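Running log. JK asked me to keep both predictions on one page so they can be read side by side. First protein, sequence followed by its tokens:
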Amino acid sequence: MMRLTMAALAFGILFGLPTGARAQWAIPDGVKTVSVGGYPLAYQETGSGEPVVLVHGSLGDYRIWYAQAPTYSKDYRVLSLSLRHYYPERWNGVGDDFSIAQHAADVAALIQRLNLGPVHLLGHSRGGAVVLTVAKEHPELIKTLILEDASGMEGLLPETPETKAMAGEVKGLVARLRENLAAGDKEKAGQEFTDGLNGPGTWAKRSALQKEILLDNLGTGVDSGERGHITCADIAKFSFPILALTGERSPKRYPEGFAAARTCNPSIPPAIVIPNAAHAMNRDNPDAFNAAVLAFLAQHRGPLQPASATR
């Protein structure tokens, strides 16, 4: 059964819905919320130990980590969150609080409100830009940073015909997504966006759950394409361990962004390439992806503590 939260009601009051009106979305069983500026930020929590916070990318939500959370939670406290306006909210695209800066502020607030301390923070794609911004604004909250085909480093690349083409690819994907949504063709919107990032035919191979997650978040397709303002100087200041991962068939802009980041901060190791995988590598090849992430986490894990000390 679904339950409406008091935090959702508070959101309606704080953000100008009619007095006494309720927010229009429900919170699934097993999902928690924390109020951030009156918004009920949803997250799923499993396991105990050092906290690992998982941040999804475009058209995703907390559910995309179905192949990670059960495995990581054997040794860690795993929090898989949904960014503002993603499922379980069914957003209509109205409002001015959908941005990398807002989402990064929300993630930082969640870490602080739950008193998690420095966390292992993992971001995928657009979520990579979010976690990079958290790291820039709140380095004290970061124990390690894990970047899975992270956006946000486009500004590090020199302006060449190739980089202009890469930027055009992103704008083209978003533009086609909007066109398909305006035409009311959700299936085509999901198919073209997925195939554009992961290669032709990917959508047809996606499971029912994978398609459901993307279709539930199509309203966030109003994304402007802005990916934060991470500079070389910002990355040079990062003093925490960083893991970069890219798929064997990922778009070139991601490994090139990682290579550029290494020129700013040579302590960042070369990106690990996940074989038999594209941009959605945590779903395409979860065994290889999880092995790389867990090896990195084990390397930077602190002294073991009793479970009671981690809450």
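And the second, directly underneath as requested:
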Amino acid sequence: MSYLIGIDIGTSGTKTILCDTSGKILADVTVEYPCSAPRPGWSEQAPQDWWNAAVKSVKAAIAKAGVKGSGVKAVGLSGQMHGLVCLDKKNAVLRPAILWNDQRTHRECAEITDKAGGLKKLLSMVSNPALTGFTAPKILWVRKNEPKVYAKTAMMLLPKDYIRLMMTGEYATEVSDASGTLLLDVAKRAWCKPLISKLGIDLSALPAVFESQEVSGRVHAACAKLMGIPEGTPVVGGGGDQAAGAVGSGIVRTGIVSATMGTSGVVFAHADKVATDPAGRVHTFCHAVPGKWHVMGVVLAAGGSLQWFRNQLCQDEMARAKKEKCDPYKLIDAAAAGVPAGSEGLYFLPYLTGERTPHADPFARACFVGLTPRSTKAAMARSVMEGATYAMNDCLEIIRSMGVSP
């Protein structure tokens, strides 16, 4: 039998699936790891945690499926986008990775827009505005604030591409994930050399760019031994988490739109041609489908808002769930279901970590609006769910205004 493995480097954990060549999933395993916030608005992780989780989850998936690792014929990668991994000449990690939801780079965003010649010019170069979540501002932040780290940096990779390096020894990325660096000419599907030059970034510190379905490396002996899969197994370009998920969901032709809630919330629309919002309120990226693009609106704290609500305000529900051996979200959901739609005028703005679409404001903050003596914890829970949903609708309305209709 022949098998395929998919590894997704998520924010809360790495998930590996093992399937047969018809696409039937035989096993899935998730290994979690922490995320640190050294300062307000900062978000970092240790790349070594991703690698440890990848190795552990692949081995566990093979064992769970009860198959032989020698049957694995190819590996695909996906993962959280925009994160910055700085490596020295020996591929040692120089600092914790700065993640997609980190908000420290507002000054660098302004610097990038200025050096590009203004927002209109920047959009013409890379199809997107400079946002704090993107990779390019992180690079400038490290150069400015950690010059010793920057001086030692020989290669800069995205999260899933660090796993590729560890598996194959190759420096590579692919167009869908590279689109979120703010350094890719999205229309031409190649690094934007004019902007990279204006920002003073060394092009040699960026990996080769592939299409998502192309083989970008092969499993080397050390990885094969660790994971229990054959040496020489092809590893393809893969995709950023949203583009990869869109392919799996069938978002591969015009008119098909998805709405996904994880930590963040994403409204994702396929596009046959490059479509850019003149105000830069949504992202225009290369799709994982060869020669295609996608438009994407992002809410930074969608499911993350409900997770915050659970962790901070639902200790009783978490304790009860532990006793009843159920998911605490089921208890929160059941309580929220008893509240009328609209939560009796109680609104939650889900800007716990700033916001991208439509406000592009790292300083936006969450709040409850409309609290009254009648407001209950159940009403607050429902308003959190509704607030995230209203924010997703903001994204959809902008995409519709661009002529992309579901």
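Observation for JK regarding the second prediction: The chain has a mean pLDDT of 96.
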